[in-house]
Amino acid sequence: MPKTDSAPFSYEGLDRVIHEKARLGLLTSLMAHPKGLAFADLKQLCGLTDGNLSRHLAVLQEAGLVEVTKGYEGNRPHTTCRLTKAGRRRFLDYLTVLERLVRDAAKAAGREAPPFGRLGIVAT
């Protein structure tokens, strides 16, 4: 959402589903791996337990941000996670709001904000 003159620091686009630390890490990991990641790899990259990862993936899946595919490789269960198209868009929108927040905080502190250049990420 655009900022308004009456509430310039409300940052309405800071999505609570995404903003939680573990889920932010999960989405960032999945953004860096567009073809998806195995559950075990995602667990290791984000430093989560099986239970924590399962719970956070369920929240992200329920919100339509992540797709979880369960299957088998040989006789072993294999779970793959990837961002949905809507999840990628929503995450990029969230990052845009974070950029604005950093610029506003830097300005308030009397510093120059780091250059962002619209994330340098191409949305697909």
TrEMBL record:
**Domain HTH arsR-type as annotated: residue spans:** 12-107
Q: Which InterPro entries match?
A: ArsR-like_HTH, HTH_ArsR_DNA-bd_dom, WH-like_DNA-bd_sf, WH_DNA-bd_dom, WH_DNA-bd_sf
Q: What is the taxonomic lineage of the source species?
A: Bacteria, Pseudomonadati, Pseudomonadota, Alphaproteobacteria, Hyphomicrobiales
Species this chain originates from: Bradyrhizobium cosmicum
Q: What is this protein called?
A: HTH arsR-type domain-containing protein
A GO molecular-function descriptor: DNA-binding transcription factor activity
Top-rank taxon of the source lineage equals Bacteria
